[in-house]
Amino acid sequence: MDKNNTPLRIEISYKTIVFIALFGIGLWLLIQIKSIIILVFLGLILISALLKPVEWLSARKVPRPLAVLIIYISLIAIISFVIGIIIPPLVSQTSQFVSDLPKIISSINDFIVFNKIPVDDVSKVISGQINQVASNAVYISTAIFSSIFFLLMLIVLSFYLLLDWKTFVKLISSPFSGRQETRVVDLISKIERGLGVWVRGQLTLSLLVGVLTYIGLTILGIPFAIPLALVAGIMEIIPIIGPIVSAVPALLVGLTISPVMSLAVIALFFIIQQLENHLIVPMVMSKVVGLQPAAVIIALLIGAKLDGIGGAFLAIPVVLVIKIIIKDFIAEGKIENK
Q1: Residues 147 and 284 in one domain
Q2: CA–CA separation, 215 vs 295, rounded Å?
Q3: How many CB atoms lie within 10 A of CB 321?
Q4: Does residue 288 lie in a domain region?
Q5: Binning pLDDT at 50, 70 and 90, where does residue 113 land?
Q6: CA angle at residue 316 from 196 to 306, to 5 degrees?
Q7: Do 198 and 320 lie in a common domain?
Q8: Which of these, 97, 107, 126, 207, could form a disulfide with 256 (CB 3.0-4.6 Å)?
Q9: Which helix (H) or strand (E) holds 114?
Q10: Phi-psi domain of 100 (left: phi exceeds 0; alpha: psi -120 through 50; beta: other)
C-alpha cells in the first residue's frame, strides 16, 4: 500500500498474456521436434565441413552435382578404408580386453592397499550386461535401425542442401529486404565458415591424438593399443574432460604391467596433451571457439544434462553459433550508434 492506503494493483495487458502463451507453445513445439532440430543442426555441421571442397571443385568448372558426388564418394571411401583397417584388430583386441578384465583388475588390486576392486562383482556385471544385451535384442535392433535411418536422412539432407546451398540461403533471407537481407546472408556465411573450421580442426585434432596415442602405447609395449587409441581420438571431441577420461583405461592397463609403466602412460598422455594445447589448439580451435575452460565445462555439463553424450558433443558448436550471432549483433549495434 502507498501513503494514501491505496491498494497496489498489478495490471497485465492482454498482449503480455498472448506473448507468454505463444512463447510457451513455441517452447513446447521445439521440445516435440527436438530430433528434427538436431538433424538439421548436424546437417549444417556436415555441410560446413564439405562446402569448401565442393566450392573448390565447382570453381574449376566441375558441375556442382558431380562435385558433391565426388566429395561424398571420397568421404565414404576414406571412412570405409579406415574401418577396414581398424575394425578387425579393434574387435580382436577389445574382445581380449573384456576377457582379460578380471585378470587386469586382479593385477591392479596388487597395487591397491585400500578399497580393492571386487573381481567377482566385475565378472557378474560383465555377464549381466551380456545377458541384458541378449534379452533386449529387439530393442537394440530397433535402436540400430533408427540410427541408420537417422544417418541416411542426415546424408540425404546435407546432399540436397549442398546442391542448392545458395538457394537455401536465399530462402532463409527472403523474409528480409535491403540491408537486413544482406546482414542475414552474411551471418549465415559466418556461421558456415565458423562451423567448417571447427569440424575440420576437430577431425584433425582427433586423428592426430589417436595416432600419437597409438604410436606411444605401441612403443611402451602397452597391450590393446588400438582400442585405447580409438577411445583417445573419439574422446578428444569433448574438450578438457575427454582427454582426462580417455587416459584412465590406458593407465589401468599400464598398472597391470608395473607401477613404472603406469607412470610412463601418464607421462605419454601428458606429453600428447601439451603438444595439443601448444600446437594444434592455438592454431585452429582456440581461434574459432575462443572460450575460457570454465565456460567450456559449463557448456558440456548443460549439453550432457539435456541430451547425454550427444548433447555434450553438440555443446561446443552450439555455443560457437551463439557466439557468432551475439558478436554480429554487438557489431551491428556499434555501427548503428555511430
Answers
A1: no
A2: 32
A3: 19
A4: yes
A5: very low
A6: 130
A7: yes
A8: 107
A9: none
A10: alpha
